[in-house]
Each structure stands twice: as structure tokens, then as C-alpha cells.
Amino acid sequence: MKDSFRFPNDFVWGAATSAYQIEGYPLADGAGPSIWHRFSHTPGLTENGDTGDMACEHYRRYASDVVLMSELGLKSYRFSIGWGRVLPDGIGRVNAKGVDFYSRLVDELLEYGIAPNATLYHWDLPAALDDRGGWLNRDIAQWFAEYASVVFDALGDRIPMWSTINEPWVVSDGGYLYGKLAPGHRILFEAPIASHNLLRAHGRAIEVFRASNAAEYGRIGIVVNLEPKYPATESIEDLAATARADAYMNRQYLDPLFLGRYPDEMKEIFGEAWPEWPADDMNIITQPFDFLGINYYTRSVAHHNAEREPLKVGGIHQEESVHTETGWEVYPAALTRVLLWVKERYGEIPLYITENGAAFYDPPVAAERQVYDPLRVEYLRGHLSAAAEAMQQGVNLRGYYVWSLLDNFEWSHGYSRRFGIVHVNYETQERTIKSSGRYYSNVIKSNGAAIER
Ligand code: BGC
């Protein structure tokens, strides 16, 4: 980062969470169960049998959590809305108490001058809709539009930033192809259908947004996770493998959204499991939206591996690099690269880094109520510098959200991986700001000048 570089005054410094990962009390006040409630309550599917039943008890502690955000100096808070809190059956009957929870949260944020950034779907599909096929049922585009419309009507006068779906790739890959995440299917034929319906649902929600009052006050986008793929060697086979990995993870969603077509590699990867889609679907999928959210954690180095179906791609572990506790290589330079790539391939849409962060082992809270997490501080420093570098090279980056505000329920890893800049003691629910939280707070207060310190 050049010394002369200054972040714009309106740069959005934030932190992110998601509903099922922090709220706890998933069935309180008439909420309907989600697929994550079901999945985590099925023995053997999450580490230590952990569930989101208590999580960070944010459902009850949201007001003091907003005070904490304000202490950190956050300009914006990215959270998600639990579909089943709002519509217990996924469609139909609205649960006023569920809507009220988010309404109170939003009011509290505004009271402290923190801009709410709401995601409609962060993986917690109502179980009642999964019983009807979930993301495999074409009707889900309509169900999602119905849900979105209820939320826009209730909160649209107060929310400046909306996202439709968080990481469609993870929903399809984890939920339908490899089964590590809810609903836990492992069926090749299902993954493309889930992906396509996620995109259709996104498009329908954009249409509903434009027709609602929420559009007068806010802007809307989608959040994708991007992971640049580097070839292990320059061999033709490895280059082709790298292209397949890139198509599958990075272009599968962005190409249809921006270019109105799927990458050619999709057919190669899925073979006869890749369907012909109705021609009209792309009209819905390509609805213009206002910004793109990018979640960036790591890169991967790809090589051809015929045994790894369906992609036939393996990853090469980079021995010389630092890795996080989720096994991800720390590689900030790829963040600069991916931001430049998005600008070059898809054009001038405003970008936000909607998640970036790391799970590292945290030492126990010291007597003086400190948690020292130097590896996470280094991770943030490297990636914030990489983001600044991209901006210096002309990328229209408008904001950055650290993942995560709080240690929380890390999906199938349960509570065993901590991503927070604030430590959570799950027995007492005590929150302690880690050194990374203090570091980030200084970054915010100095509007980026303290990144290198
Ligand atoms: C997800 C978060 C998750 C984080 C760390 C992202 O893919 O949006 O919900 O906790 O990565 O794994």
C-alpha cells in the first residue's frame, strides 16, 4: 500500500455474521425450523454434535452486541435474516414476532449510526420448504420472492444495503454435491439444479425489490465467494484443470448473472447431469443489480487428478505458506488479483468485500481480559493492504466486512473454529475484544491509515 493512498471518506468499514451462526433460540417466538436446525440435530453431522441452539444468544443479546459494534467503531453491520423466523412454513403465514426481532435490531443499529446490511438467505432454508424439494424445486424462485417481498415491506424503509443470497456455490457444492452442509445430499444431478434455482430466486427477488418501496431507500446485490485458481504447472492438463476449477467455483454464478450464459466447462464437468435450461430463465437471472459482494478467504493451486470426480481437479498444499485452522492457505495477493479480475471480466459494478477473515487457535482469555491473536491481526493486515492495492489499481471497492464480528457456529465444524474479532465464552456468553478487534478498530478510526501499523 503506497503511503500516499487514502481510503475515500465514505469507505464502509464493517463486520459480518449470519442468523443461524449467532442468534441461538432457533425456534423461539414461533419460528419454523430450518435445514440447519435439522442437520445439526442429526447425530454425527457436526463436530461434537454442536447445534445452533444457543450459539451466541444474539437473539436475546442483540442490543448489547450493537453497543459492542459501536465500541469497535463499525460503520456497517452485515447480518442475515432467518427465513423461518419471518415465515415459519417458508411461505404463507407471517410470524410477526420474528419480523419484530429484525425490526428491533435494525432500529438499534440506526440508533448507533451503524448502517444495516441485510442478507436474505445465508443457508438456513425453512425445513418445510426442504420437504417440498428445497432448492431442487423450481417453485423456490417464487417462494423466495414471496419471502423477500414480506421483508422488503417490513424493513425496506430503514435498510440501505441488501443482498439476496450468500454464496450460492457453497449452498450447491456443500448442500447437494458433497453433502458436508445442510441438507446433506450427495447427488451429482442435483448440484446444477440447485445452482440454477438459486440464480433464478436471486433474479426474482431483484424484480420484487425494484417494485417495492425498499428500492427508494436501499440498493441490492448478491454475495459470491471467489477463490482464484492457480495452475500447479503449465502443462496442458493442469491448465485445463485450473480452468474447470475456476469455472465451477468462480464463473458458474458470475457468468450467468453478468453475461447471461454458463461457462462452457460446466457441461464438461457435469456431463449428462448438466441439463438444458428453459431459454427464458436467463431473462430472470440477468436482472441488473447495484453492487457485487465478494467473500474472499483463500486461493488454491490446481492440478489434474483423474480420480477426483466430477471435476478431476486436485489441490496442491503449499508447504511454505501459513494455513488457518480450516486448512486454508493465507494468500492476500490473490485478493488483489480477484478484484482486478472481476473488474476486467464483468465491468464497473461497485464492489464490497462482504467477508474476509480467519480461524486461528486463540489462547484462553488472559486474566486482564485480553485475547492475543497475532495471526489473525496479520491476516487482516495482509488482506486490507491487498484490498488497498486493488483500489490503487482502479478497482471500485466501496467497503470491507471482516468475518466475523463474533466467534460463532462454524457450520459442520460446530464451535471448534473461531473466526471472531470478538471472543465468545460459550459457557458465560461473555464477549472479549481480541487484539484483532482492537487492531481493526484502529484501522476504522484512522480510515485505513493504521493498516500497516
Ligand atoms: C460463510 C460463513 C462462514 C465462513 C467461514 C463463508 O463461506 O459465508 O458463513 O462461517 O465462510 O467458513
3D structure, described in words:
Helix content is 40%, strand content 14%. With 453 residues, the chain is of the alpha/beta class. An eight-stranded parallel β-barrel has the order 1-2-3-4-5-7-10-11, surrounded by five helices. A three-stranded mixed β-sheet has the order 6-8-9. A two-stranded antiparallel ribbon has the order 12-13. Helix 3 (58-72) runs parallel beside helix 5 and helix 7 (140-155) runs parallel beside helix 9. The longest helix is centred in the middle third of the chain and has 24 residues, at 236-259. It is globular. The mean pLDDT is 97. Bound molecules: beta-D-glucopyranose. Beta-D-glucopyranose binds at residues 18, 21, 166-167, 170, 225, 295, 355, 403, 410, 419.
* Widest sheet: strand ordering: 1-2-3-4-5-7-10-11
Kindly name the structural category.
alpha/beta
SS strand fraction: 5-15%
Task: Provide mean pLDDT, rounded.
Answer: 97
Bound molecules: beta-D-glucopyranose
Helix % is 25-40%
Largest sheet: 8 strands, parallel, barrel
Task: Give the number of DSSP strands.
Answer: 13
What's the helix-strand series? Answer: EHHHEHHEHHEHHHEEHHHEEEHEHEEEH
Distance between the termini: 12 Å
Per the principal axes of the C-alpha atoms, what is the gross shape? globular
Q: What are the low-pLDDT stretches, counting only 5+ consecutive residues below 50?
A: none
Question: Count the helices. How many?
Answer: 16
Using only C-alpha atoms, the radius of gyration works out to 21 Å
